[in-house]
Amino acid sequence: MSFYVTLISDSSLSFFPDNKISHFTTQLPRPIELRNGAWEMALVDFVYPHTWYNIREDNNLYVFDVGDNTFQAGNIPVGYYSNVAEVLKNIKIESPNTETQKSKSKLDLYYNPVSKKIKYQLHDRAKLILSPQLAGMLGFEYKDLKGSGYSTRAADLKGVLPIMYVYCDLVEPQIVGDVQAPLLKIVNVKGHDGEIININFPRPVYLPIIRQHFQTIHVDIRQHSGALVPFESGKVFLTLHFRLRQIV
Q1: Domain boundary pick from 118, 150, 182
Q2: Can you tell me the distance from the alpha carbon of 160 to that of 59, in angstroms, rounded to the nearest whole number?
Q3: Considering just the CA atoms, what is the radius of gyration of the chain in Å?
Q4: Fewer beta carbons within 10 Å, N or C terminal of the chain?
Q5: Is residue 29 domain-shared with residue 108, that is, in the same domain?
């Protein structure tokens, strides 16, 4: 005995107007009652829009210390960047005075597409301070750069969101690291900006269900940090398979 339920992130806005693409509750058309024993469920199909930004307001800040106690703050325009060189191009030194060109000459950034590492050179005691998230994305172990050198790791603009954690309020909480949470599935992120990604799980992992009677299902899709996945547009579709618990 088994059945499928497909959830759509925007299907119940009239019931739950605060629903988001990565955080939504679905009002089912009728109550579901699970009888004849214990049941389990699994995520068997997952469709999501690859529409998040890798440069966002929480990771785009930098400060340039000219070296004479003069600081210039800046931010990289928010958006999705597929090219590291484009990110570096937007780390700009702007000065309202006649020292603009002199200030600009104190910073050089080069991206090597073969090694995927960044070479930097700062002159005259100048220092570049990156936000921790931006530094990590660009491959730097430290966020304060001075003198000259290379990033310690390869720059990875996709590394901002390598996996997604899909949670559902119907499944029994399980140990996830050092916490217990109703984790349904960890999904490896695929695709490119703007694409609609469809992932099928031919060997799904079934988890015990904690409610035998329900008419709503809540889903959270989160990053490793615990923050919601910041989809900018589109819809999420999840197909769930329910079955009587199998005794192995």
Answers
A1: 150
A2: 10
A3: 24
A4: C
A5: no
Instruction: Output the six-digit token pair for 137.
Output: 């994305």
CA distance 92 to 95: 10
Q: What is the extent of the structural domain holding 107?
A: 61-150
Separation of alpha carbons 248 and 194, rounded Å: 42
Same domain, 235 and 176: yes
Q: Given the structure tokens 């009587």, which residue do they identify? A: 244
pLDDT tens digits along 182-234: 999 999 999 999 999 999 999 999 999 999 999 999 999 999 989 999 999 99
Query: CA distances (Å), 43 to each of 130, 206, 207, 247, in order?
Result: 39, 8, 10, 19
Q: How many CB atoms lie within 10 A of CB 77?
A: 11
Domain with 224 in it: what CATH number?
Answer: 2.60.120.550
Confidence of residue 105 (pLDDT cuts 50, 70, 90): low
Helix segments in the chain, DSSP class H: 84-89, 100-104, 132-137
What phi and psi, each to the nearest 5 degrees, are found at residue 171? -90, 150
Tokens representing residue 181 in the block:
């949470």
My answer on whether 171 and 221 are in the same domain is: yes
Q: What is the pTM of this model?
A: 0.86
Question: Dihedral (C-alpha) 170, 38, 30, 45: value to the nearest 10 degrees?
Answer: 60
Residue 93 lies in a domain: yes
Query: Is 232 within the bounds of a domain?
Result: yes
Tokens at 204, concatenated: 């799904």
